[in-house]
Amino acid sequence: MKPVRTLSGVTTVTVLTKPYPCPGKCIFCPTDVRMPKSYLPDEPGAARAFQNDFDPYRQVQTRLDSYRANGHPTDKIELLILGGTWSAYRRDYQEWFVQRCFDAMNGFDSPSLVEAQRANETAACRNVGLVIETRPDEITPREIAWLRYLGVTKVQMGAQSLDDRILEINQRGHTAAQTLKATALLRAAGFKVVLHWMPNLLGATLESDRQDFQRLWQGYCPDEIKIYPCQLLENADLYAYWQRGEYHPYTTEELIHLIADLKPSIPPYCRVNRVIRDIPSTHVVEGNRRTSLRQDVLAELQRRGQSCGCIRCHEVRGEKVDPQTLTFEDYTYTAAEAEEHFLHYRTPNRKIAGYLRLSLPLLGAPDIGLADLREAALIREVHVYGQSLPVGMDQEGAAQHSGLGTRLIGAAEEIARQRGFTRMAVIAAIGTRGYYRQRGFEMGELYMVKDL
Ligand code: SF4
After folding, report:
1. Does 386 contact ligand 1 (Cβ within 6 A)?
2. Are residues 122 and 148 both part of a single domain?
3. Among candidates 188, 189, 192, 195, which has minimal Cα distance to 215?
4. Are residues 263 and 323 in the same domain?
5. Is the minimum distance from the CB of 29 to ligand 1 under 6 angstroms?
6. Fewer CB atoms < 10 Å away: N or C end of the chain?
7. Within 13 Å and on the Cβ side, how many CA atoms surround 156?
8. Residue after which a domain boundary falls, among 313, 336, 353
């Protein structure tokens, strides 16, 4: 058993959609006709999808089986759907794909998505998060309502750069303003937002990348980021630029120093999920081939006597938590059109035992047009760490079972009430509806809601 996979309290199951083109023309993005755009058949998660013919049911089922065989709990599942641009797939395919994932978690087939979702509310494998990836220019109020219908709770988007000149040279096909607008729309609808950011794009320098990274915290304020340094691959258009001598990948040393420069500036509300994409090194034509960059960066930070401020570097992981010694903190910041509160509990050595993201829409917040959200404050995430124990198998000191979630929700309600909000809405994943019902919420159209 590898405990680290489930230490955050939730087991992640990654699935890929079928091979399909993408409306994007990004010059750094690899193309392999056997795969959805941007994926290679021998990337770790992608290889499993390939073996299962991209069938959603089989992908989820085989993953759950192998987790069980290795002694991992499978009662709380975060479903991560990868593959090019989700919104570019036909909606009937999207609906079928998500339903089959729910069917696999439920262990039986349902006649419709809504019924599969309903069955999952009380299933043994409950869905506690559903993530898709798409482009910022695909995010509209209509798309958001559709994503909620599917049960999506978190959206990953490629920002790549926040500099329009770099976006244009790399043919991203959207502007930084569109990325900002997409984050504001998703935030106003309570979604968690993950941005991918790419240093070393064509036209960028180490210095311009340092400056670009700081823009992330001005309005965009992603909840999570993936730092994906651009990797030079033979089956991407960028290869021709390199052949003509117009593109130069950073060296491993340059990358380690760059990321070490950036990490200390990351605010406490953000989690850095990745600092490199797990592309097998044999595909990388020139530049960094090390996939263990995170350890190298941490070693460099230690040498400098610095540390990273992000959530991932402060998770309690397997540590025992004594609820009596925790301190409550409210880190407040302003993102595009919302006042955000990152409410969290810290242990005496500054580790985070649990957190809640409360979003209070400001006057200019976009109107998504959903009845549940009218004049509502939003809980975008409640996350309490601890060993992912099956319900009923409590372990003394494991943070997940010491009522931290309830205390965080109470604190969020109090802040919202003081600010004059009369209603709270939660973007509850299907399998967490029961949890919120027990805390006084009831099902609205697409959110769990509660009068304050
Ligand atoms: S939008 Fe994403 S998947 Fe599509 S071409 Fe660009 S990088 Fe590749």
Report:
1. no
2. yes
3. 195
4. no
5. yes
6. N
7. 24
8. 313
